[in-house]
Amino acid sequence: MSTYVTAVLPTDQPPLMHQAVDEAVRLLKEGEVVALPTETVYGLAANALDAAAVAKIFEAKERPSFDPLIVHLASKDQIDLVADVPPEISATLKKMVERFWPGPLTILLPKKPIVPDLVTAGLPTVAVRVSSNPIFRRVITGLGKPLAAPSANRFGSISPTSASAVQAELDGRIHLIVDAGACMFGLESTIIKIEPGTPKMFIDIVRPGPITPEDLKAYGKVRQATRTVVDEATAAPGQLASHYAPKTPLRLLERPEDFIPEEGKRYALMSYRGEEKDGYLNLCDWEEVMMLSPGNGKLPEAAVRFFYVLRALDKLGVDEIIAEPLHEHGMGIAMMDKLRRASRRV
Ligand code: TXA
Ligand code: MG
């Protein structure tokens, strides 16, 4: 593992923003990796067409090479650069990218040979998306190449939604973090695959995220990926059951009455909206209670705070984090999916 002095460059004033973007483009052109904001979570980016640069992503993250990366494009017109679109799905794909790009939707497509096998972990498909974050867009346009970028955390850890969270994960492992504040969505992009079908296409959700089944159903018959570990491993190799887990054991407590606190153990509560009527606040003498959506139970607010709260609770050093269930619709689907995966590790 190489060690670096990691610079964190702000973007909250135009001259600083230009400096940060220029520095990111310079490093990327030299084949280095750079942490960049996107509208979902921070990504660790490298030139997707340069296998040596992409290898540095795997090194910094300690990511196993069987886990493929998402390729980010500067615009929807660049799909043909990296993917061969099957004629049967091209009309549907076109409509979907018109509607959702730039934005938090990633689409699996047959890959072109120009994409290094390291990027796709040897799979015949490549995952593509166009980010809507203005800083990310400036960098990718400045570089003039697609960017491979996984979430900027160490493998198996919690995705970062701020520059300081990236720093906590990757300090000393990369040259640069571009700081553009908190991410707008806070959850990773929805990943889908479009499968030919009649009379409608099938839209298979490989990873739930900000674009919900409700959003997708106008484009085909939506199928949710099943939750068995075997299917996950083949559908999206990075969707392992242990993913998104804090180091502290976490338990999704679907019903408050199932909780029997153990003598001498310290517990923290990840509360949905901090309301007594939900039945969790008085279950024990919590070491700490953090709310995802204070008061109202607003799912987009909970999503923005989700990884931040998880990271904060993980720092407390309690014996167990207890998570309240959220409404399982909209962005709640993705959060419940992550909580289930995280709590399986216990
Ligand atoms: O919002 C996002 O998608 C963020 C930002 C940075 O763009 N990126 C992100 O990347 O979440 P990552 O690497 O943390 O998660 C990508 C997921 C992994 O679970 C990986 O296995 C899956 O996408 N994936 C990538 N390429 C794939 C492929 N060809 N087939 C199946 N799954 C794929
Ligand atoms: Mg990730």
From TrEMBL:
The protein's name in its UniProt record: Threonylcarbamoyl-AMP synthase
UniProt signal peptide: none
Cross-referenced SUPFAM superfamilies: YrdC/RibB
PANTHER family (alphabetical): SUA5, THREONYLCARBAMOYL-AMP SYNTHASE
Enzyme Commission number(s) of this protein: 2.7.7.87
Cellular compartment(s): Cytoplasm
A GO term, aspect molecular function: L-threonylcarbamoyladenylate synthase
Keywords from the named record: ATP-binding, Cytoplasm, Nucleotide-binding, Nucleotidyltransferase, Transferase, tRNA processing
Primary role: Required for the formation of a threonylcarbamoyl group on adenosine at position 37 (t(6)A37) in tRNAs that read codons beginning with adenine.
Top EC category: transferase
Domain of life: Bacteria
InterPro entries documented for this protein: DHBP_synth_RibB-like_a/b_dom, Sua5-like_dom, Sua5/YwlC_C, Sua5_C, T(6)A37_SUA5, TC-AMP_synthase_SUA5
Reactions accelerated catalytically: L-threonine + hydrogencarbonate + ATP = L-threonylcarbamoyladenylate + diphosphate + H2O
Domain called YrdC-like: residue spans: 18-211
Record bears the keyword Transferase: yes
